[in-house]
Amino acid sequence: MEKKITRWWIAAGILGIVLILFLAFYLTYGKMVVKSNKSKTNQNKTVIPTATPTPDPLAPYSILLLGYGGGAHEGGTTTDTIMVAKIDPRNKEISLISIPRDLWVPIPINGDETKSFKINAAYPVGLSKEKQYQNKKVEFTGEAGGGELAKYVVEQVVGFKIDYFAAIDFDGFTKMIDILGGIDIKVEKTFDDLFYPIEANIDDPCGKTDEEMKSLEATMSGDKLEQQYTCRYEALHFDKGIQHMDGITALKFARSRHSATDGGDFNRAARQRLVVTTVRDKIIRIGFIPKIIPTIQTLTRNLTTDINFMKMNELVSKALEISSYKIIPIALTDQNVLINAKASTGQFILSPKLGENQWEEIHNYIENKGATTSATIKVQN
């Protein structure tokens, strides 16, 4: 009898611990989740009851991944990284689609009225409370407004519905990598970047007088002008091969874009996909699941998402299964479906090869998992 009572207390104790951990996870994770205002658009509409179809447990779903500076970083909430992960449980595949930040897109800023911006402006426009954006559609307002607007705009580009978003700032990214104990990245080629920005020095005149600065501004612009202020930058060097990186180093590796041999946004996007894949593999390899609660507690101020608790719980429970899925990298570049162009504002941008806002070829390219279509070949020729 005594043994039975003892076993009962042990079982009850374990159950209590599980419930406490579950509650801690729920309460902590809840601080990251933002609720969309989309439901408010239907409040005054007559809803006709319809039969709810049985959910397909193997239906694909997608997550928009956004990375931004945050804090004192230049651009604040302007997204430095825009990536879509489309998970296909039936075929056990994950399409990892990189969207270049300079892609020129229409963004709804006043009801249905749109204005063209680079796509990295969608998230901050959604979050903005400035006067020129006060008449946005209700679903693009509130705490989830940035994510909802970014999802809407990216959906036009990729050609399918995006279910969720997750946005993390640079500080959160470095914390996450450090919690993992760093990551081992296979660097594809040796490269140097002599102009990686030092955020603390972004407005430093570097000893130049007002007259010297005005003279430079009169003859130069863009990166060429900025690079005259050498104290605002540090030099980076990465060797080819397996390199262990802590959070800060991994961030620099993922953000670098001024290398003579591996520079530009397209090479940077390839490195960002490599980092995402490496992080996924490390999470599974080290048995990261027990560390989820302390990790979430660390990132509550750095990560925002609309992935609800039930979906997150499902993702966590299927982490081992998802880790075995094949990753298909898909990059939208000027070598396949995009062209370099210049906006009416004078900005250098990227646009679809078939013409501004003509997304059909891009939809086909993604649907074909990065295979060049006959339409693409015809445009290139």
Protein model, in words:
- The structure is a single chain.
- α4 crosses α7 and α7 packs antiparallel against α8.
- β13 and β14 form a beta hairpin.
- The C terminus is likely disordered.
- By secondary structure, this protein is of the alpha+beta class.
- The strands form 5 sheets. A 6-stranded mixed β-sheet has the order 11-6-1-2-3-12, sandwiched between helices.
- 37% of the residues lie in helices and 22% in strands.
Neighbour order of strands in the largest sheet: 11-6-1-2-3-12
Main sheet: strands, sense, barrel: 6 strands, mixed
Q: pLDDT average, as an integer?
A: 84
Structural class: alpha+beta
Uncertain ranges: 15-24, 373-381
Q: Report the β-strand fraction as a percent range.
A: 15-25%
Oligomer: single chain
Q: What's the shape?
A: globular
* Order of helical and strand elements: HEEEEEHHEHEEHHEEHHHEHHEEEHH
**What fraction, in percent, of the residue positions are helical?**
25-40%
Brief write-up:
The chain is α+β, with helices and mostly antiparallel strands and 381 residues long. It has helices at residues 2-30, 122-127, 145-158, 170-179, 210-219, 222-226, 247-255, 264-285, 292-299, 309-317, 319-323, 360-367, 374-380; strands at residues 61-68, 79-88, 93-98, 104-110, 113-118, 164-169, 183-187, 191-197, 233-238, 241-245, 303-305, 326-331, 338-342, 348-352.
Which keywords apply here?
381 residues, alpha+beta, six-stranded mixed β-sheet, two-stranded antiparallel sheet, 13 helices, 14 strands, 37% helix, disordered C terminus
